[in-house]
Input
Amino acid sequence: MKELRVGLIGCGFMGRTHSNAYRRLNNFFPVEHRAVLKAICDVSPEKGQKFVETWGYERAETDWHALMTATDIDLIDICVPNFAHREIALAAAAAGKMVICEKPLAMDVAGAQEMVDAVETAGVANMAMFNYRRVPAITLAKQVIDEGRIGRPFHYRATYLQDWTISTDVPQGGDALWRLDAKSAGSGVTGDLLAHSIDTAMWLNGPISRVTAKTEIFVKERLHAATGTMQPVTIDDACMFLAEFANGSIGTFESTRYARGRKNFNTFELNGADGSVYFDLEEPEYLQYFEYKNMQTGKKVESHLTGWRKVHVTNSEHPYMSHYWVPGTCIGYEHTFLNAIADFVKGIETGVPVQPDFRCALQTQKVCDAVIQSAREGRWLETGA
Ligand SMILES: NC(=O)c1ccc[n+]([C@@H]2O[C@H](COP(=O)([O-])OP(=O)(O)OC[C@H]3O[C@@H](n4cnc5c(N)ncnc54)[C@H](O)[C@@H]3O)[C@@H](O)[C@H]2O)c1
Output
C-alpha cells in the first residue's frame, strides 16, 4: 500500500476530527493509500504531546515551518484559527505538499486568491473542509436536485444558529475565543457559520450573484482574554442576508450566536416547482422530500397521497452508507470528516480533483466578503462568485 504521510497543524476541535478521520480511513474505505500520522504541530507543546499519545502521531512540533522542510510529509492539514491559514498554505504549496485547509479558506478574498494561486501554480492537490457536503442526507439532496426532481427552483432558505455568546461575561480573543476577535477570525458568524451554509447552497443551487445584508453586534464591548482590557467587539454577532442566485431563485440566510436554545442549528430548504427538500442537522440521518410531480410519469402525484417524505438516509444505496453498517443504522458528525478525507484520497488516486477545492472555496469567500461589505454599506452588492 502507498503511504499518505500527514502533517497536521492545530490540536483543537478540528485537529481531533481530522485525526480521527485519518485513523479510520483504511477501516472503512478501500483506497490504495494508507494514512500515516507522521507529525502533529501546535504552539502548545502539551497539546502536541497529548495528540502523540491519543492519536498516535510519530512526533510533535511547535513550529509549523518544521513540517514544510520535512521530507517525510506529503500532506499538510491546516486546523488552526483563520488568520494562519494563508501563510501556512502558501508555505505548504511552495514546498510541493498537498494541502487540506479548514474553512473559511482565508480572512478575506485577497488571501483566498493567493492561496488558490499558490496551490494551482505548485500543482498540488487541495481541499477546503466544508464537511457538511459529506453528510449523507445532504449529498442525497444534491442527487435529488441533480436528478431534476425539484424542477425550477424558487426559494432557498438557510439558518445556522447558536447561543453561546449571549452572556456579556464571555471574553473575546486569546487561544480559546479567537472566534470573537476579528483580527484572528476575519469575521464573526459570517465566516464561521454562514460559510458552511453558503458552500452548501452554492453546491446545491448554483452561484449566488447578489446579496444585501444586515449584521449586528449585540454586546458592544468584551474583556479581551489576551490583553485583559475591555475592547470593542469587532465581529458580526448575527448576520441576515438576502441572496439572488444566478439561476433566478432567491434566498434568505440567517446566522447568530444569540438564538437562545439553539446549539448548532443548521438547516436548509429548497422549494422548486416540482418538489422541495429540507435538511436539519439535529436529525442528520434524515432528508425530507416533498414530491409534487413524479419524474418517471411526468404527472402530478395524486393529491390524496402528497406529503413530506422523511427519508432515513441509511440504506446501502445512499451516499457513503455502503461503507458503514447495515441499513437502518446511523453514522455521526465525525463521519462527515472521514467521508471528506476518503474523497480527497480517491481524488489523488483517480486524478479527478476533489471538490470543494481552494478555487471553489474562494467563491464562498467572495460571498462572505460581499455580505460583510453590504452590511457595512447598506446596499445590494454583486458577489463576483
Ligand atoms: N469544518 C467545520 O465544521 C469546522 C468546525 C470548527 C472549526 N472549523 C475551523 O477549523 C479551524 C480551527 O478551529 P478549531 O475549532 O479547531 O480551533 P481550536 O481553537 O479548537 O484549535 C486551534 C488550535 O490551533 C493552535 N494554534 C493556533 N495558532 C497556531 C499556530 N500558528 N501554529 C500551530 N498551532 C496553532 C491552538 O493552540 C489550538 O490548539 C478554524 O479555521 C475554524 O474555522 C471548522
About this structure: The CA atoms of residues 98 and 125 lie 5 Å apart. The first strand starts at residue 2 and ends at 9. The chain has ten helices and 17 strands.
